[in-house]
Sequence to fold (148 residues):
Amino acid sequence: MKIPSILVGVAGEYFVAAELSRRGYIASISLRNTRGIDILATNQSASRSITIQCKSKQVVRKTWPLNEKNEGFVSDDHFYVFVTFAGLQEPPSYHVVPSRVVSDYITTTHKRWLSTPGRDGHKHVDNPVRNFSDPDNQYLERWDLLGL
Fold:
């Protein structure tokens, strides 16, 4: 059963918050109008806090669509958690990635894409779409990177 993408996004945020709580951290889902931040998380002693942006999908591929705005949203305390829902009977998978890694990746791969010819041999036209990928699962379940 395919669910609407807005619900996939909401479910992803709640699953990430639940996973953080399960690991002993304090997680709060932010208001919908908070640009680029879906979850605020801290350790129990409140000595370290971080922000998280969740990107969720139902398709089992290791690529997540982003926007050109994600190239500049970088902080040592900001992370992305890419969530994949494989089906109702399967637990979601989480790729936990520092924002600097995401920014560098999408900037580099987009420049490479622009410099290569398209299928018809013509030059690609620039657009705001960016894609992050983790083909080797380097960031799969890397909750330790949060430093909480």
